[in-house]
Amino acid sequence: MRVSLGDREAFSLLYDATSSKLFGVCLRVLNNRAEAEDALQDVFVKVWNKADRYKAGGYSPMTWLITLARNTAIDRLRARKTGNVDIDDVHDLSDGSPTPEAEAIASSERKRLNDCFEELESDKSEAVRRAYLDGDSYKDLAARYDVPLNTMRTWLRRSLMTLKDCLSR
Amino acid sequence: MSQKEDHNDDAALAGEYVLHLLDGEELAVFEARLTMEPALRALVRDWDASLVALTDGIAPITPPAMVKDKLQAVLFPDAAKPKRSLWTWLAGGVAVAAIVVGAAFLTPSLIQDPVFEPSLTASVAAQDGTLVVAARFIAQTNALELTREAGAARPGRVLELWLIAEGSDAPVSLGVLPADTETRIELTQDIAQRLANGLLAISDEPLGGSPTGAPTGEVLAVGPVTNA
Predict the structure, then answer these.
(1) What range defines the domain where residue B199 resides?
(2) Domain RNA polymerase sigma-70 region, which positions (chain A) (predicted)?
């Protein structure tokens, strides 16, 4: 990404090219326009400040941006739920070992994920979705599926391993 | 635990981390390990790359334009300063006038204080010549002598003179020009020292001058300050 050169014009182009997808993600997670706008602003401030680290992270550009947007929105959602203001990135994407991933690979990954989700029982894939897109905690999920918290965790970890096995096949 | 079980455990842990399901001490320990273990970071990256597909069905929605405006203001704060708006204006209309050779000599006999020669001069001129003000700076007295050679303020408006000093962020007002064609402005030492290599500009302002301390109306004329 040219943004890593600190190029202001490139930043503007990147914003124009990606902001609507990222705003869609923020809005989906937060379900509140004003908060989604604030989150989007946070995302691009982070993009500006971290663009140099993107290069080292081994992420494809859109994966990196969407993950950043989703993480920022989830952090905001959690802060809203708990009243905490600690929204500093729980989740840093930097990494020292670059393995550039082409968008073409990413899109085949998407099909694979959907196929693998289908191998999970529907309520189990739904739990993963709810954690990813709705920011549900183990506590939220345990209440939703009416199971003890430890059971919920065992359940979800098993689902993750099933997914992982399927994805690495 | 076998190596494979270790790996499986980490793979699940990385998935929980990506889903933001870890908290408290578990989260702290995991994040500390992340800084030291490339293999763990790779597991996180794999989950991120896989799970991002969950956003595929989310339709793009154009954010309001003010989000971008606010971002530009936050990330590029100099863009919000008056100098920027002045330059934007300049780009919009008036081009920097060519230096008028010998402008300083056009009206030498009218100068009140003939003892001193100007050290700096500028011809602050509209590109089409509808407004021309010759400026001469007398270093010995810190006086800027101005002669309006063409044009005048618009009805009910005034002309305000600005200095954009070399390397400066914002135009500094040197004052509103009176109706007289000849004017003499006493500059402070600070302003006088910043005149060299600066740019003089004249803007159209409401009576009494710009209410904001920065140019608010159209820039009518500009000219670089050069050595006499």
Answers:
(1) 78-227
(2) 14-81
The string of pLDDT tens digits covering residues B69-112 is 889 888 887 644 444 444 444 433 333 332 333 333 333 333 34
Contacts 24+ apart (CB under 8 A), B72-81: B72/A12, B74/A41, B74/A45, B75/A8, B75/A11, B75/A44, B75/A45, B75/A48, B76/A8, B78/B169, B81/B169, B81/B170
Which of A18, A157, A166 would you mutate first to test chain B, the one with the most B CBs within 10 A? A157
Q: pLDDT tens for residues A92-119?
A: 444 333 333 334 445 566 778 888 888 8
Residues of A in contact with B58 (CB under 8 A): 21, 24-25, 28
- Give me the interface pTM, i.e. the ipTM: 0.82
CATH number of A103-167, picked from 3.30.420.40, 3.40.50.80, 1.10.340.30, 1.10.10.10: 1.10.10.10
Question: DSSP 3-state assignment of B213?
Answer: coil
Rg of chain A on CA atoms, in Å = 17
B12 with A164: Cβ contact below 8 A: yes
Contact predicate A95/B36, CB 8 Å:
no
Q: Taking CB atoms and an 8 Å cutoff, what residues of chain B touch A23?
A: 60-63, 67
Q: Do B20 and A48 touch (CB under 8 A)?
A: no
Structure-block tokens of residue B111? 């100068």
Cα torsion angle, A62, A63, A65, A67, sign: positive
Return left, alpha or beta for B64; rule: phi > 0 is left, psi -120 to 50 is alpha, else beta: beta
